[in-house]
Amino acid sequence: MSDLLVDVKKLTVDFGSGAKTVRAVAGVDLSLAKGETVALLGESGSGKSVTLRALMRLHPKSARIGGSVEVDGRDVLKLPPAELAAFRGRTVAMIFQDPGLAFDPVYKVGDQIAEAVKRHDRSSMAEGRKRALELFERVRIPSPERRLDNYPHEMSGGMRQRAMIALALACRPKVLLADEPTTALDATVQIQVLLLLRELQRELGLGVIFVTHDIGVAVEVADRIAVMYGGRIVEMGSCATVIRTPAHPYTKGLLTSRAGHSVAKGSRLVAIPGAPPDLANLPPGCAFAPRCEIASEPCRQVIPPPVDLGPGHFACCLKATPATIQAAAPQSAVA
Amino acid sequence: MSMIVDTMKPLDDVDRGGKATALLSVRGMVKHFGSNSGLLGRTKTVVRAVDGIDFDVIKGETLGIVGESGCGKSTTARLIMQIIKPDQGDILFDGEAVGSPALSLNGFRKQTQMIFQDSYASLNPRLTVEDTIAFGPRVQGMSNKAAVAQAHDLLRRVGLEPSRFAGCYPHEISGGQRQRVNIARGLAVGPRLLILDEAVSALDKSVEAQVLNLLLDLKEEFGLTYIFISHDLNVVRFMSDRVMVMYLGKVAELGPSESIFENPRHPYTQALLASMPSMDPDNRTQEAPITGDPPNPINPPPGCRFHTRCKYVTSLCANAEPALYDVGGGHEAACHLANPNSGHPRLAAA
Questions:
Q1: Band of the pLDDT at A110, cuts 50, 70, 90?
Q2: Which chain A positions have a beta carbon within 8 Å of B286's beta carbon?
Q3: Are B277 and A273 within 8 A, CB to CB?
């Protein structure tokens, strides 16, 4: 057994049927090592959340999942219901964007955590409460003893998100899946939660897959970044590589279209033209080709395979070669 | 400028107060929302959403408003538009009080339009794009033919080809396209002031940049003034000439954009800026600038509203509320540390 926690190969997820079939994830390969944080970066409809949910089989029954998903050495797609229930929470846990919806509004937060502990550890409710208190202290909720008896609506947004992290960690999972956990939070609270997640990840040796649409957030937490577009990973590499030497035109576009302080007042942003693709109606070749400035005829016909650009760095673009990064001259790619 | 004369009123005719007059002046605006809570609803709680704010919007500028949820930035926008009525305070538009004989509410709303965050909820699902844009001018007496012609012209200017989009319903187009329709609808009545309340926040990042560029183009083309409300500090910095930082219903800091971002004087603004992701993998944020969540506006703390989270807090801050103090260059901060005469102990130590 290597230290590979998650090994996803050729993952596909389809919704609907017949002509209305939507392929939300179209062949994703993803691995996660112990103690590593990978960020899935993408826009709405890019397949990032669907990929994440497939790791816990959280999709409705109508969804058809293809490929293979191995988590901690087990084939998730073949787990029978009882084993799946034990697997969720124990091996893999998830935190969501809206903690208000993830908690049951009519039970005390402390009891909901204790219940999860009781269910998985076959312990008593009192032991569960003890563990819940420990967790509340761990995620630094002020006056934790009193807060265990709060109902979800009695907590502020930031505190609810901390409580949800406590719930996710209740059964000491090996992998934590985070689906836009800080998107609904205010700026000053977002950074607190990001730092908490980073600290917990380090101290507990968790593997974390972090879904976000915000590059800034990804840079704060991730070791590696996987950029998703149209249901595929179009570029992946270490955080620094992807930010400093992006190779896929979409990644480059995302970085240049950011309004930062380096953009002169009164100037215009370098925007990506067009709109994200319709998953029910994807173009035959590269999904980004209709919006891409350097696309040529082959881009519209074949789905580009990953091009190796260095250790752990690849981009699915026909124009990407290691040379084009170093030359940093987009014009040369057109010829 | 000549391009807009055919469909829009020339600006010089409507500029009543002249260049020196602020386009919009807000003075002493207060809005408290009351609600009954507790046993049998006998406890009266008051949300101090906006609690006495003053500011001007200068002709031709973009004033950015930033702050966290509950700070009152959206309430401020709605109060200006009179979607909700202020409890106290005056709104002057180009020197005239809104609602006075000189400037009726209708007359004001022709000159001030608002774009909302949710591009779908703010459009009538049963009107086509063309009818949506032509609706306002028709109500104001424009002939049907002229209103439709103007709608097509505006569609072209916001980057939507009329032959393809005029007959569409809101559900048939994408979020970015819908927000362009909202902008065109706002422009249809020939406004001078556009209030953009989180207008790009719901858009995907790649589309957001397109709409921001469009807003900059339209501002130049139509000689508009913007109030740009957003929680995204990068976007506010890019768009705004001046920035107003709000905290729990009060103005914490107000000044030229570069001055606020380069040299923030209020500890809250400093914390807000330091909370932005670093974008540097080798130099990540190591410590959260402030702890805890923003307090509840139902029972805001006495004295300086930020004192419960401020690292420079003293007894003075808990007792006396700091007023906005001009630190130079039109940059004002509501912090005892910004005012050399406030008696804050740290000032004596320095």
A1: very high
A2: 195
A3: no
pTM score of the predicted model: 0.89
Residues from chain A that touch B288, judged by Cβ atoms under 8 A, are 188, 191-192, 195
Q: Output the pLDDT for position B270.
A: 96
CA distance A116 to A123: 10
> A125-138 vs A109-121: helix axis angle to the nearest 10?
120
| Number of inter-chain CB pairs under 8 A, A vs B | 129
Q: Is any Cβ of chain B less than 8 angstroms from the Cβ of A273? A: yes
Closest Cα of chain B to A211: distance in Å?
Answer: 15
Task: Give the β-pairing of B250-256 and A307-308.
Answer: unpaired
CA torsion, points A51, A52, A57, A58, in degrees to nearest 10?
-110
Q: What is the pLDDT of residue A323?
A: 56
Contact: A261, B237; criterion CB under 8 Å? yes
Asked if residue A204 lies in contact with residue A197, where contact means CB atoms within 8 angstroms, the answer is no
Give residue A179's pLDDT. Answer: 95
B18 and chain A: CB distance < 8 Å anywhere? no
Q: Show the low-confidence residues of chain B (pLDDT under 50).
A: 1-12
Nearest to B176 among A214, A258, A275 (CB): A275
User: The domain B2-37+44-245 is classified under which CATH number: 3.40.190.10, 1.10.3720.10, 3.40.50.300, 3.10.20.30?
Assistant: 3.40.50.300
Exposure string for A8-30, b = 16+ CB within 10 A, e = fewer = beebbbbbeeeeeebbbbbebeb
3-state secondary structure of A265: coil
Residue labelled with tokens 């380096």? A262
How do residues A230-285 score in pLDDT, each as one tens digit?
999 999 999 999 999 999 999 999 998 887 766 777 789 988 998 888 888 889 99
Token pair listed for B141 = 């007496």
Nearest to residue A176, comparing CAs of A241, A221, A232, A117? A221
Whole-number pLDDT of residue B44: 75
Using CA atoms of B181, B182, B188, B194 in order, give the dihedral in degrees to the nearest 10: -140
Partners of residue B178 in chain A, C-beta under 8 Å: none
Give, to the nearest 10 degrees, the angle between helix B175-188 and helix B129-139: 20
Partners of residue A276 in chain B, C-beta under 8 Å: 204, 206-207
* Per-residue tokens: A294: 């350097």
> What spatial distance separates the first Cα and last Cα of chain A, rounded to whole Å?
47
Q: Which two tokens stand for residue B21?
A: 């007059």
* pLDDT score for A324: 54
Per-residue pLDDT at A331: 41
Asked whether the beta carbons of residue A43 and residue B288 sit closer than 8 angstroms, the reply is no
Q: Assess whether pLDDT exceeds 60 at residue A301.
A: yes
How does pLDDT run across B158-170, given as a tens digit for each residue?
Answer: 999 999 999 999 9
Put simply, the answer to whether B294 touches A257 (Cβ < 8 Å) is no
**pLDDT score, position A334:** 37
Q: What number is the average pLDDT over the span A61-66? A: 92
Pick from A159, A186, A275: CB nearest B68 = A186
B37 beta partners? B43
